[in-house]
Amino acid sequence: MKWPNILSHGNRYATVEDVRKIFADYHDTLHWLARFLLTDEVLAPACVVDACNIAERQSPMFHDWLTHWAAHATLLCALRMQRDDVAALVPKYEQLDGVDSDRPLFSPEDLQLLVDNAEVVRTQLDVLCRFVLIMYGIGKETREDVGSQLRLSESAVVRAYAVAFDTFRRVSVKTATNANKAGPSGGILDRLHHLFEGIHRLGQESAEPNKK
Questions:
Q1: DSSP string, the chain
Q2: 206 domain residue, yes or no
């Protein structure tokens, strides 16, 4: 996956201690991500621990990439845990009819609504749609990259995202009357923005060496 590099100059390589500190500082946010993705929420803490171990074993990475690699590792770990369930749903979205157009990618306001309504949205989406929602709608991965990782066609990515986005919007409309009620989203929302910002730009940068 392609995760963002915030700074283009002056980077230093991260140490194992740096990795562990990022996972500690972003624990609640990474736990939110794992819990949203996993069918069995009891697995979420183990997923974050495993993701930290994965990140520690990565090739040397720049310190400024750490938060994004933490999200990357958490998502990869969750996908490994749910690989069979995701695979079982692929034929459904390869053959799904009646989805006729693209849906917009998530805006900051959409992300706010998702955090506020995460539990309801999570229970109404199957696991494949949850991964597509995070990877494509929020992470802004390309359809090709999402399809490659989830092992489905680009057209099936579009169909799964349409189902996910429409479900999210339907839930958001139903809960609109509670929009002004204080919720737990504040700190998590800010950190999610940080985890996912700039992904498209990094994707473009990562593609440049292949053009040369």
A1: -----S-SSS--BPPHHHHHHHHHHTHHHHHHHHHHH-SSGGGHHHHHHHHHHHHHTSSP-BGGGHHHHHHHHHHHHHHHHTHHHHHHHHHHHHH--S--S--PPPPHHHHHHHHHTHHHHHHHS-HHHHHHIIIIIIT---HHHHHHHHT--HHHHHHHHHHHHHHHHHHHHHTGGGTTS--S-HHHHHHHHHHHTTHHHHHHHHHHHHH-
A2: no
